[in-house]
Specification:
1048 residues; mainly alpha; 8 strands; globular; transmembrane helix; glycoprotein; endoplasmic reticulum; PIG-O_N; transmembrane
Length: 1048
């Protein structure tokens, strides 16, 4: 049975979409590989004689790994040191046989995590006080500690590895490894960690852990905590539930002795940043609250820090997992996002000076204050988050996580062990160096020895167990560094019993270990993910095949009207021939592979993924070959030659503006190969639109037609460009220092000004949008059965949106107290009603949902962009023939210029609605409009509508206007002719999106070793790839939903 025209067009779109899916899946499989997680764990009995470390300093025997209890008071043999320190007492619930690798340096640890804690929230600022922003230096208790209690407090710049999503940072902090880029996709609904980590090590070695706060911890560690108080973390509009829950359980827990590690994870600052931005009153209030929390925690610990009391040997760590931009976003790799703070404070008084010089990459990585002047200066060192897990393991006396590639941080480790009493077998030249410093260096050198052995063991095992392991040459370089450090350490251990150990030799040993660990971490950062070049090349090749298919399809629809209907339909999509050819080539590919395998004697091995690629490649080659070079048309050879000449002709368009539009589209695609143009894509797109608009204005002046529309098109472009960076954005800068309680930080300090601003930028534009949509809908060229119902309910929808934002204004400005029942109804039920209405009306009123999710800038952007779209549509008629209404109904109409401008316009809308191509630009608050509780599917759909609604959904729905605007003038035009023209427009729009996605794919393949690949190129690729699939899906719906226009 012969397929109908509409069915063949749908199959063609499905075929092109299938090629896109195949290309993106294979390319991402080769580019966004996850690091292979080894299910191997470190154990106490892993240590053996071949480790080659000095167990004497660790108080650990090589055979039994039992803790050698030290007497309460040791004889001090160092002439320069008359002090002593009682070693950490083992908690009563722990068996001494469970202590392994290193002795515990503290009894308890309290970890307070302030999510999205920027470094300048904490660190002393060099900016003059009168020019500081209100949020700078708000946690002053930390600054006071490092100045007044410098012997037991230390502040670090805590540096994360991008991407800086909370899930990845928690995985990095606990495993000591580098979570890969693909884990961003698991930011919602995190899976449990299966590889070794510090939390599992603590649980397996008898440490009792209590957690309160972010429920992501329980998702990652479902059974490791002794007691947990999780609170839902995904509702970014809720600033207080998680924090109040932590405070409810934190201070009672500080007076209890049923834990060894206490974790409190606060989320208020992160949520305040997402909703209000850094420069907001809500952020200042949260920081002040956190400052008070830290003060109270320290006061509680100090009250219980006397000898023999509960917290006589407790370490407090106050830290952030990542930073945030001024917009309150995070996920990228900028300094604002990767730099956070870590404060370490111990309740135990230190009897010796601490290492206080920050570690450079040299032998002088441990030093001491040399003058009173230097003692008065706060020292802030860098601390890589990669080093946190292994450092915490060394402090708590548990095995280092098997997959950790970090190194024990000397400053933090020195804070808790800096006054360690020298052992009796130590021989030091006390006339050359301080005894305590040398003794500490011996201990730290032994710790680093274990650290290097563990990292070397992991790298060797990873390379054996993983297909994307490290190369032999890289491992040889690391092996030479490791052997050099071990041999030097063994020499020192051999001579230590008969000669005095000098300070320089200890520093040299530490330097050699550090050099190896730094090299291992650098190698992991550079080559952790070994890209699969085969899959990447295959994905790019399929994308280029889809480009050829789309190019030919667009040209086919421009020449088929003169052909007979039967031939025309068959030529659009020869389904039977393509299926047959695809099957034959798939069998041929598999047969060739089997023959090669047999003749090679089985020496050639391929993975399951490679075999699937071979079969898929055969299908793609077979089907695309039939479509591109088909010669069995049911027509004469002469007609075929005419068709092919028309399809592949070089004179694309006789209209200069059309040619220029195509050139601009190609330049835009090529510009994606440059990181600078990706960063400035919004300006590039606006430049192209304005340039084409100037050409249109020139034509309008020559024809004395559509001059007003062409002029306003230029003006509206400039307004949209300014609007995207103006006061509607969340990153407004506070110009006034007048901050009053209950008022948002805003340059509009008058209530009347704020109300007027909302009236002009929110309510009035929303009313205009609703009125314009209702008016156009009543005169629609596309009537449906539900038209009257949609038209009657539409005013109710826009009135509901106005009510939703009005109640929000009354609450924020404190003009009138809104009853709780009304507030909940408006905040939850009205958005849900709009979602239900849009679902019933399908595409008819999805613009209302997009407006609601876009927030308060949505109506104004909608008015301006709607006017710009109207101008764009109106001025296209300038290029229509003068007597178009009398033309033959099968004469060709060219839509290249209009489609290119519509595509650029859709990209412009993406930026004007506050989005950008980075994960820190995702507007998580939109996912919770109308809902307080998290559901991954529901919130994912809302976040997708917010991200792609204005730039993909609405422009694709409006594609039909490009055709209907001219088609209704052709009284004798047939329904079939309209479908042909509309199909050509859809395919051309899809082609433009594919070109951009193909070029950014090529770009990330070329730049895969670039410094900015994960911070810039990879996010851009992910957004464009997902956007291309969304475009394919919407084009199918658009083609199914659209009917021929009817003039009323």
């Amino acid at each position: 049975m012969e397929l109908k025209f509409k069915t063949r067009v749908l199959l063609l779109i499905f075929y092109i979409s299938g090629l896109h899916v195949i290309a993106i899946l294979f390319f991402t499989r080769g580019f966004l590989l996850t690091r292979n997680e080894l299910p191997l764990f470190s154990h106490c009995n892993d240590l053996h004689d071949n480790v080659g470390c000095n167990y004497t300093m660790l108080n650990v025997t090589a055979l039994g790994n039992t803790f050698n209890t030290v007497p309460a008071v040791r004889e001090n043999i160092c002439e320069l040191d008359r002090g002593y320190r009682e070693p950490p007492r083992i908690a009563s619930h722990l068996n001494s046989g469970n202590i392994c690798w290193t002795p515990p340096a503290v009894k308890k640890i309290v970890i307070l995590i302030f999510d999205a804690l920027r470094f300048d929230f904490v660190a002393p600022s060099a900016i003059p006080e009168d020019k500081r922003r209100p949020w700078m230096d708000r946690l002053q208790v930390m600054q006071r500690l490092i100045l007044e209690e410098s012997t037991r407090a230390r502040l670090f710049k805590f540096i994360a590895d991008p991407p800086t999503t909370s899930l990845q940072r928690l995985k990095g902090l606990t495993t000591g490894s580098l979570p890969t880029f693909i884990d961003v996709g698991n930011s919602f609904g995190a899976p449990a960690i299966v590889e070794d980590n510090i939390i599992s090590q603590l649980a397996n070695n008898g440490k009792r852990m209590k957690m309160m706060g972010d429920d992501t911890w329980l998702a990652l560690f479902p059974s490791q905590f002794h007691q947990a108080f999780p609170f839902p973390s995904f509702n970014v509009k809720d600033l207080h539930t998680v924090d109040n829950g932590v405070l409810e359980h934190l201070f009672p827990a500080l007076h209890e002795d049923d834990w060894d590690v206490l974790i409190g994870h606060f989320l208020g600052v992160d949520h305040a940043g997402h909703i209000f931005g850094v420069e907001s009153l809500q952020m200042v209030e949260k920081l002040d609250q956190y400052n008070k929390v830290v003060e109270d925690v320290i006061s509680t610990l100090q009250n219980e820090s006397a000898c023999g009391r509960l917290h006589d040997d407790t370490l407090l760590l106050v830290m952030g997992d990542h930073g945030q931009t001024l917009n309150g976003d995070h996920g990228g790799g900028t300094a604002e996002e990767v730099e956070t703070a870590l404060l370490a404070w111990t309740t135990r008084e230190q009897t010796h000076p601490l290492p206080d010089q920050c570690e450079p990459s040299s032998a002088n990585n441990v030093g001491f204050r040399s003058s009173q002047e230097e003692q008065n200066k706060p020292i802030i060192c860098d601390f890589q988050q990669l080093d946190f897990a292994v450092t915490l393991a060394a402090i708590l006396g548990v095995p280092f996580p098997f997959g950790s590639i970090g190194k024990v941080n000397p400053e933090l480790f020195g804070l808790v062990t800096g006054s360690l009493q020298p052992s009796k077998d130590t021989a030091l030249n006390s006339s050359e160096v301080d005894c305590s410093a040398a003794e500490w260096l011996k201990l730290y050198s032994s710790i680093l020895c274990l650290n290097c052995w563990q990292v070397n063991r992991y790298l060797q095992q990873y390379s054996k167990s993983s297909l994307n392991g490290f190369s032999i040459s890289d491992l040889d370089i690391l092996k030479n560094l490791y052997d050099d450090a071990r041999s030097f350490s063994n020499e020192q251990s051999t001579t230590a019993s008969s000669a005095r150990v000098t300070m320089s030799s200890l520093l040299d040993a530490v330097s050699r270990y550090t050099k190896y660990l730094d090299a291992a971490a650098a190698l992991a950062r550079f080559k952790w993910t070994r890209f699969n070049d085969e899959f990447m090349a295959f994905g790019i090749a399929v994308l280029f095949v889809s480009l050829l298919i789309q190019l030919k399809a667009v040209r086919i629809f421009s020449v088929i009207p003169p052909m007979p209907v039967k031939i025309e339909d068959s030529y659009i999509f020869p389904l039977k021939e393509m299926i047959k050819s695809g099957y034959n080539f798939a069998v041929l590919s598999a047969g060739i592979f089997v023959l090669v395998y047999v003749f090679s004697g089985g020496s050639i091995t391929v993975s399951a993924g490679q075999f699937v690629m071979i079969l898929t490649g055969g299908i793609v080659i077979g089907t695309s070959k039939t479509y591109l070079f088909r010669r069995n048309l049911q027509t004469s050879k002469k007609i075929y030659k005419i068709i092919m000449r028309n399809v592949w002709r070089e004179d694309l368009h006789s209209n200069f503006v059309g040619i220029l539009a195509i050139i601009f589209s190609c330049i835009h695609a090529c510009s994606l190969l440059s990181n600078s143009f990706i960063l400035r894509e919004q300006q590039v797109v606006t430049f192209f639109l304005v340039s084409l608009g100037i050409m249109d204005l020139r034509t309008a002046l020559q024809q004395n037609s559509k001059v007003l529309q062409a002029t306003w098109f230029l003006i509206l472009n400039f307004i949209l460009r300014i609007l995207s960076e103006a006061t509607l954005s969340k990153d407004m800068v506070l110009q006034s220092g007048d901050i009053k309680p209950g008022r948002p930080v805003s340059p509009y300090t008058s209530l009347l000004q704020q109300l007027s601003f909302s009236l002009l930028t929110v309510y009035a534009p929303l009313i205009l949008v609703g009125y314009a949509f209702m008016t156009k809908l009543s005169r629609s060229y596309f009537p449906t059965r539900h038209l009257k119902a949609i038209q009657h309910l539409l005013p109710v929808t826009y009135a509901a949106i106005c009510l939703y934002w009005l109640v929000e204004d009354l609450e924020n400005l404190q003009l009138k107290a809104v009853p709780e029942s009304i507030r909940l109804f408006v905040r939850l039920q009205i958005p849900r009603g709009i979602y239900l209405y849009a679902s019933l009306a399908l595409l008819g009123v999805l613009n209302a949902v997009v407006l609601l999710l876009l927030g308060r800038q949505g109506p104004l952007v909608a008015v301006i962009s709607g006017l710009e779209a109207w101008c764009l549509l109106e001025k296209q008629s300038m290029y229509a023939p003068a007597c178009e209404s009398q033309r033959d109904d099968k004469a060709q109409i060219d839509y290249s210029s209009a489609t290119v401008q519509w595509n650029l316009f859709s990209i412009q809308l993406f930026f004007c609605t506050g989005h950008r191509f980075s994960f820190d630009g995702l507007r998580y608050a939109a996912a919770f409009v109308g809902f307080d509780h998290f559901n991954i599917y529901r919130q994912g759909i809302l976040l997708g509508l917010d991200t792609f609604g204005a730039s993909h959904l609405l422009p694709i729905i409006g594609l039909q206007l490009l055709v209907s605007r001219r088609h209704v003038l052709r009284r004798n035009a047939s329904d079939r002719f309209y479908k042909i023209q509309f199909s050509q427009t859809l395919l051309m729009f899809q082609l433009l999106c594919t070109v951009a996605a193909t070029f950014i794919t090529v770009c990330v393949a070329i730049q895969r070793r670039h410094l900015m690949v994960w911070g810039l190129f990879a996010p851009k690729f992910v957004f464009d790839a997902i956007g291309l699939l969304v475009t394919d899906f919407l084009l199918v719906l658009e083609f199914l939903y659209t009917t021929s226009p009817t003039l009323y």
